[in-house]
Design a protein that fits this description.
This protein has helices at about 1-50, 70-75, 75-95, 100-110, 115-125, 130-140, 150-155, 170-175, 185-195, 200-210, 215-225, 225-240, 245-250, 265-275, 275-310, and strands at about 55, 65. Mean pLDDT is about 85; it is low at about 1-5. It is built from 15 helices and two strands. By secondary structure, it is an all-alpha fold. It folds into two domains: about 1-50; about 75-310, MetI-like fold, CATH 1.10.3720.10.
Length: about 300
């Protein structure tokens, strides 16, 4: 017995030394990645937060302003208007989920696996197109003189409906939100399709035996089962909306009359157009805090929900 123990002890010690060396190797391999992330992600973010309290002049001495930039932000009408535009964009984006959800329902209803694969590939393929190309194409669609939309309206005898879609404050934001119509090729479709495909076929068969129609099944079975995926998609949509800005930057620049202004564009304008880097850092820090707060609330609500279900 003593001999067996004496043999096990060296083996345990050798294994511990091997794991220790392996751990050191893994840390050594990860170190360059951590250094790069620190230099190009964390350092700029922390620097921006620090200089939000300064009249920041990159390359020159910066004067400390305390909370002056934040006080200025509270009275910045354009900044708060940009959040109202984000609210409209978010609500509109949630409403468009109906289309990819219906598309996912139709795909899983196809009888053949090969046919499902073909339609899934066709609907997802546009995701691979560069967003910039998509924006420029839609910009051509909206062109008031040579655009496809106005050309179609004139061709069918409705010239009075032809419009400067991106140049009118009343239609510019709506025109931006319609980019990507019918909104199938995107993350919502993939999440809906994955969730619906993971529902066991036995559940569908049982529902059919109970006389549950297709329309009723969607609300009684499909939506409740993929509720977690929908909640995750909602959180992603909030973050994506807060970071929205590329389409507006390319096509309208926030205009006309700030009708398509969003926080990202306001920050860029303050930094590059106005040269007010400290105030731009203040806006950036505030937007980061908003995103972080929403993320923490979502994580806390999910943890609370799990705790409640566990006690139940």
């Amino acid at each position: 017995m003593a001999r067996v123990r004496s043999m096990r002890a060296p083996r345990a010690g050798a294994r511990a030394r091997f794991l220790s060396r392996r751990t050191l190797v893994l840390y050594a391999v990860m170190l360059p990645t951590l250094v790069v992330i620190g230099l190009f992600a964390y350092y700029p973010a922390i620097t921006g937060m620090v200089f939000s309290f300064f009249h920041w002049r990159p390359g020159y001495e910066s004067d400390f302003l305390g909370l002056a930039n934040y006080e200025r932000m509270l009275t910045d009408r354009i900044w708060w208007t940009s959040f109202l535009n984000l609210l409209v964009i978010f609500v509109f984006g949630i409403a468009t989920w109906v289309v990819p959800f219906l598309a996912a329902e139709l795909v899983i209803s196809l009888s053949g696996e090969r046919l499902r694969f073909v339609f899934r590939a066709l609907l997802v393929a546009p995701i691979a197109f560069p967003q910039m190309v998509t924006f420029l194409i839609w910009g051509f669609f909206y062109d008031p003189s040579r655009g496809v939309i106005n050309g179609f309206l004139r061709g069918v005898g409705l010239p009075d409906l032809a419009h400067n879609w991106l140049g009118d404050p009343g239609t510019a934001l709506l025109a931006l939100m319609f980019i990507g119509f019918p909104w199938i090729a995107g993350l919502p479709f993939l999440i809906f399709l994955t969730g619906l495909q993971n529902i066991p076929q036995e559940i569908f068969d049982a529902a059919a035996l109970d006389g549950v129609g297709r329309f009723r099944r969607v609300f009684a079975i499909d939506v409740p089962i993929i509720a977690r995926q929908i909640a995750l998609l909602g959180f992603i949509a909030v973050i994506a909306t807060l970071q929205y800005g590329m389409a507006a930057y390319v096509l309208t620049g926030g205009g006309p009359d700030n009708s398509t202004q969003v926080p990202i564009l306001r920050m860029l304008a303050a930094a590059f157009n106005g040269g007010d880097w400290g105030y731009a850092a203040t806006l950036s820090t505030t937007l980061f805090l908003v995103i972080a707060t929403i993320g923490l609330l979502v994580v806390a609500s999910r943890s609370l929900g799990k705790a409640v279900r566990g006690k139940a």
